[in-house]
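Hey all, quick one. A colleague (J.T.) asked me to put the fructose -6-phosphate job into the tracker so the inputs and the structure tokens live in one place instead of scattered across chat threads. No bug as far as I know, just bookkeeping. Sequence used:
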Amino acid sequence: MCGIIGVTGVDDALPVLLEGLGRLEYRGYDSAGVALVTNTGLWRARAAEGTHSVRDLLVGGGDPPPLASIGIGHTRWATHGQPDTGNAHPHFDCTGRLALVHNGIIENHAELARDLVRGGHVLTSKTDSEVLSHLIETEMVRGTSLAEGLRRALRHVRGSFAVAAVHAEEPDLIVAARRISPLIVGVEGGTSFLASDIPALLGATRRLFALEDDQLAELRPGTMRVTDLYGAHARPAALTIDWDAAAAGQDGYDDFMTKEIHEQPKAVAATLRGRRAPDGTLVLDESAGLSHDDLRSIERVCIVACGSSYHAGLVAKYAIEQWAGLPTDVDIASEFRYRNPILNERTLTIGVSQSGETVDTLQGLRAARERGGKVLVVSNVVDSSMAREADGVLYTRAGPEVGVAATKTHLTQIVALELLALVLAQARGTRAAGEIASLMDQLLALPDTLEAVLERTKDVAEVAQELTDARDFFYLGRHVGHPVALEGALKAKEISYVRAEGYAAGELKHGPIALIEPGTVVVGVATRNCLWEKMCSNIEEVRSRGATIVLVGNDGDERTADLADHMLWVPAVDPMLAPVVDALPLQFLAYWLAQARGHDVDRPRNLAKTVTVE
Ligand code: F6R
């Protein structure tokens, strides 16, 4: 989390930094700040309520900000220290001549800080990051350059970092380095840039490179030098940029979440495009790195992911087991790497991550690689850290997702994983060609179905209006409806701030049903699948205890409607594909509940889109 940015070699650095910070805000918005190197030293502005308030701070009262050709900026997701101005980046050293921004966690910050304070340094914030500015200061007092000072400082550090620093004594230079946290650099004409992520620099340059772990870049106007932490020449990885600046904009919608929900039909269609060869067989991109022999030799699948991506993985488990007959485990990435997963060369480990940067998933995949077997990543970001490290990548082609709550990337993950399940079934001969072709036809028809559901947003808004005052929600489902319920509950929690528990409906009677009372809202995924009748019984159980019932049901299904106080209607599709369709009204429900409560759906509290800390 946190986003960092830097630019050197422009006429006026401040607007470039503010524009980039605006695009990085999805990485955190607890506070923000910028530092410029001017003729008279460093100039800094920081504010505690996100980038907008930094902008207000700068254009509001006081002296106008100075013109500078170089600067760095930061938008924060607080880990160590409250989200106040004093803890906002950039952090100075004791001299006030060095400024630094950092994304990541310095795990040994406490012992480093103790030594620094003993050495006479005065630390002014509660952050783990500030120790870095003072460590560099210590090295520079000994006469080293800024770049060498950062190299040496980082050798003392444990943890993760994407870091950038400027110094008044080297007024055209930014030094930057990374370990685990992502960092990209680029040069365009006489200007050099850095940022945590591609969207921040879209429109500025398309010549971008990703620093590898423990690489350091020295950026001067129009030039870039990359070394390792001991000064040896190093080569960053060139990035393929297939997004444009317009795709990362709001495009006239009230917020990014609405825009991205409405982009889902297009995103699903793009993810499926070109996956059927002229002879009718299904194919993956070459980037997936899975030959026919590989697909046939797999004996087990292990899916590793977090949050909404984990829920997409849960849907995939049903599809891979049912269609391809392969045992499939789905693990929460932060747990996976700390147990002892049993993998071998016939295990396919699949990391699911829209950003490709989530540190838990990244580290989980590294652990899997060490144990053998192929690692495939399903990611939305071309050349993301996971994509570069894995044996193969299956890209979802959803375009940039800016809203913090995953919507179009979640649906495209399900679609990509179901496509993979069909390809596995085809290679292993576990399903007849005709059945695979029919399922693919139905996948390809999903964009039209989604378009039809999008038209119903106002119906969902009316239901949400009725539920404005409810605080306790249970989301229930069975079979593939279970992950849909988990995802619906996650959406409600993160943007509507209601207590929403997602449960397998059959599990409720083993304890949680004690919480059902009049006023509790139960949202059930009750589209027709093999467990629909059992699902109806589970709904009866909570209805008889006074819950208000909201059901996702198939158009015209009066038997389902008989059980509900409110219906969210969707067209019927093959039960295995239903999660793609059934998720949509639950996205809308969370959205409209959030609207009714006056929340900013694109900036839910305490969250950041890309989670690069453990
Ligand atoms: C929820 C959401 C998160 C992410 C999770 C994993 O709406 O967006 O739960 O799904 O942080 O992120 P990625 O997919 O980037 O690894």
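Adding what we noticed when we looked at it: DSSP finds 19 helices and 24 strands in the chain. The first strand starts at residue 3 and ends at 8.
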